[in-house]
Design a protein that fits this description.
- The structure holds two protein chains of two kinds.
- By secondary structure, chain A is an alpha+beta fold.
- Chain A has two domains: 185 residues, no CATH class; 70 residues, Alpha-Beta Plaits (2-Layer Sandwich).
- Helices cover 71% and strands 8% of the residues of chain A.
- In chain A, strands 2-3-1-4 form a four-stranded antiparallel beta sheet.
- In chain A, α2 packs parallel to α9 and α7 runs parallel beside α10.
- The two termini of chain A are 22 Å apart.
- In chain B, the strands form two sheets. Chain B has a six-stranded mixed beta sheet, sandwiched between helices.
- In chain B, α3 crosses α4, α4 crosses α5 and α5 packs parallel to α6.
- Classes of the chains: A alpha+beta, B alpha/beta.
- At the A-B interface, α1 and α8 of A face α2 and α3 of B.
């Protein structure tokens, strides 16, 4: 295998057909940009799903007749549990004051009596605690006489989680569709480039070149085009991402409870290598019909 | 290097014949360089382009292959450099049946042939040097040797010192010389010229023919397909005509074959 010669010929091909390759790389960059955007959506939806999809908060509403001793005992028991990170007591008055402060209808609600708002223990559990463990904890707490109700918020988070899963699936489908389009664009663009060089292929074949000798520089050129296009797409995406984050980061953080994430290094590497692979495969496939001389 | 001396001149064959590890017959050096036995080729069913062609070419020979347009001259040559496959018969090149070569072995056959075409088949945006050197690059020859061999080939075709010029700036005759240089740079045993003067005026045609004759004088066998009777008439080489799909032998040149109908055939 004479790779040095293949590299030399690939370099010559890129130099001689630079205009064509510039057009090809531009077209391919747009295709890769679409793919990168779809991946970015997937990544952020995934993170959002992870962030929102699991509850790490429990509200234990205390019965009206719960004595201070019962509540103190309950608190000691809860704090001893390994998955519980923090327990905070909220009295009826505190709950009422918090509600009125957060509500936009403060004036009207200020007349409500404090006992409308039950006292509670607000429990923060360690993140990553399995849902089943929370459910069993909730059941056990419910059996205490001083506990009126336990709210795990699980039904809300389940609905949200399924909504996010659907969104993620949609983004994944889109990414798949865009990948197919990228392959088609890569194949057709490289086919155009190869078609312009049929004479070169014919001459080499007539001089006794093997198929692999002819194919190698084209495959290298295809790989270079693909990776270059993916790299340009990543550059464009990161520029757009920085602009978006600068302008709307606060709003998005408030809405989603998390900062926007860029593609992971693995996804970026995957895009670059995927681009190179798509270019190389597209080139090799486009060449097939021209190799019969 | 292997060599045969049927015509007294050495036939240089510096590259692995067909494919590494594949042996040719022991008497390959003494057998004719090319033997066609009962070769038929059909492009259309029931109307063969070639039917049972028998032809033997000895080492170091210069053979004109002629015939009317569409008679099958190019087809005959294309069967030898294996652009097409024979439908029937055998083609022995240095004793090996190339009609039955696998597609993987075809490049190795072509490294032992030089092929020149009417349309030159040079790459216009490459330099003269690059156009000739490509044949050696395929053989993974060291760069220094490539430079020396290309310079030598360009000198032989009268383009010495013009390696740096872009081919598209050359005249038709010069482009054909580049093609000839590419064909001879590997020192092949056999050169197939398919209407190499078809796109050139009569003076340039004679120049190119003379060039092939000079190459032939060094021992390389030349099969020169042409329908240009003026060229054939000027030389006294062996003449084979393709008539009705068969190879018809004439003794020497067109002038020694009066009344054969060949004058009418070729114009």
């Amino acid at each position: 295998m004479d790779w040095k010669s293949a590299f030399t010929r690939a370099r010559r091909g890129l130099r001689e057909e630079r205009r064509l390759y510039l057009v090809a790389v531009s077209s391919l960059s747009v295709a890769f940009l679409c793919l990168a955007v779809a991946l970015l959506f997937m990544q952020n939806l995934g993170a959002l799903g992870e962030r929102w999809g699991q509850s790490n908060h429990l509200s234990v509403y205390l019965a009206d007749n719960a004595s201070d001793t019962d509540v103190a005992q309950l608190r000691v028991v809860l704090e001893a549990l390994p998955e519980v990170e923090q327990v905070q007591s909220v009295s009826s008055e505190q709950a009422r004051a918090e509600f009125i402060a957060q509500s936009t209808m403060g004036e009207e609600l200020s007349t409500l009596p404090a006992d409308v708002f039950p006292a509670s223990l607000e429990i923060e559990v360690a993140s990553g605690t399995p849902v089943q463990r929370l459910e069993s904890l909730s059941q056990r707490l419910g059996s205490f006489g001083s506990v009126a109700e336990v709210e795990t918020y699980s039904s809300f988070f389940e609905r949200l989680h399924s909504l996010l899963s659907a969104g993620r699936g949609l983004a994944m489908g889109l990414a798949l569709l865009v990948s197919l389009c990228v392959l088609a664009v890569v194949g057709n663009t490289i086919r155009l480039a190869v078609a312009r060089r049929t004479r070169e292929i014919e001459v080499m074949k007539l001089c006794g070149a093997t198929d692999s000798f002819v194919r190698r520089p084209f495959v290298l050129e295809g790989a270079f085009q693909g990776s270059m296009s993916a790299f340009l797409a990543l550059l464009l995406l990161s520029a757009a991402f920085l602009v978006l984050r600068e302008r709307a980061d606060d709003m998005l953080t408030a809405l989603m409870g998390m900062r926007l994430l860029f593609l992971s290094p693995l996804a970026m590497l995957g895009l670059l290598f995927g681009g190179a692979l798509a270019g190389a495969v597209g080139s090799a496939l486009s060449l097939r019909r021209y190799l019969v001389v | 290097m292997a060599s045969g001396t049927d015509s007294g001149a050495p036939v240089v064959r510096p590259f692995p014949f067909f494919r590494a590890g594949v042996r040719t017959s022991p008497d390959a050096g003494t057998r004719p360089i090319l033997e066609l036995k009962g070769v038929s080729k059909y492009f259309q069913r029931d109307t063969p382009t070639l039917r049972g062609v028998d032809l033997t070419v000895q080492r170091g020979e210069f053979v004109f292959v002629t015939g009317a347009s569409g008679a099958g001259k190019s087809t005959l040559l294309s069967l030898i450099y294996r652009k097409h496959t024979v439908d029937d018969g055998h083609i022995f090149f240095c004793g090996k049946d190339i009609a039955r070569l696998t597609s993987r072995s075809i490049p190795f056959l072509r490294r032992n042939l030089g092929v020149v075409f009417q349309d030159f088949k040079v790459i216009s945006h490459w330099t003269v040097f690059e156009n000739v050197a490509v044949a050696l690059e395929i053989l993974a020859m060291p760069r220094r040797l490539v430079r020396a061999r290309v310079a030598e080939a360009l000198e032989r075709v009268g383009l010495s010192g013009r390696g740096g010029e872009t081919t598209e700036n050359l005249s038709g005759g010069e482009q054909q010389r580049v093609a000839v240089a590419r064909a001879i740079v590997t020192e092949p045993a056999l050169i197939l010229a398919d209407e190499p003067t078809g796109n050139l005026d009569s003076h340039l045609a004679i120049d190119i023919l003379t060039l092939f004759e000079e190459i032939n004088e060094t021992g390389t066998t030349v099969l020169f397909a042409t329908h240009d009777h003026s060229l054939i008439a000027k030389r006294d080489h062996r003449l084979v005509s393709i008539e009705d799909g068969r190879a018809v032998e004439a003794r020497r040149g067109l002038s020694s074959w009066p009344g054969s109908g060949l004058h009418a055939l070729v114009g």
